[in-house]
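Final report, section 2: Outcomes. Of the targets proposed, SigF-like NTF2-like domain-containing protein is the one most frequently requested by collaborating groups, and we therefore present its record in full.
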Amino acid sequence: MENPVEEIKAVVHQLTATNSPDIQKAALESYMTSDVAFRHPVCSVNAGPNSRDTMLGIYQWYRVLSPQIEIKVESIMFDSEKDVMILEGVQWFKLFFLPVKPMPARLIIRLTLRKQDGLYYISEQEDFYHPEDFAALLLPPIVPFVKFGLLASGTISGVLARASHLLGWWTPGPNAHEVNGHVEPSEAASEAGLYPDE
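The predicted structure is given below as tokens.
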């Protein structure tokens, strides 16, 4: 890619949503390094010689599992100093054997780019999903149960935190102070030695 920000939407479409396996294969070979790495909630590929061939198999199997995929890239962020691109997207994916309609699943894609001969190539792809979005991707009818479980977990965490305060564990002390109506810690994390590199 000469201009990743302008070209990435077309690349994503060719890799995931094209109706041609030839276009998909050509896109993967054109835009990914031969030693590309991949991380996903259900599979991964370590960077190595010809790891792109394994990556192609994953993309091909993805289309076998869901013959009709739609994807929309909604935002693009590119850090040209670190050669990292973050995409926020929504995809509609349905396992071919499920008699349900696909639900939108939001995901974040982190791409590490490598510049060679004036062009950018994808050297690593990482896909991130919230649990309910991943459920929507695989088995849409369970989404309400996943959402309920997450909300219940949040509520239980709050109750247990209050109980721990009564026992004297992790209780905010007098070393916090208020600034403009907000409670601010009296010491920054880096000053506390949590981040020694800062």
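The chain has five helices and eight strands.
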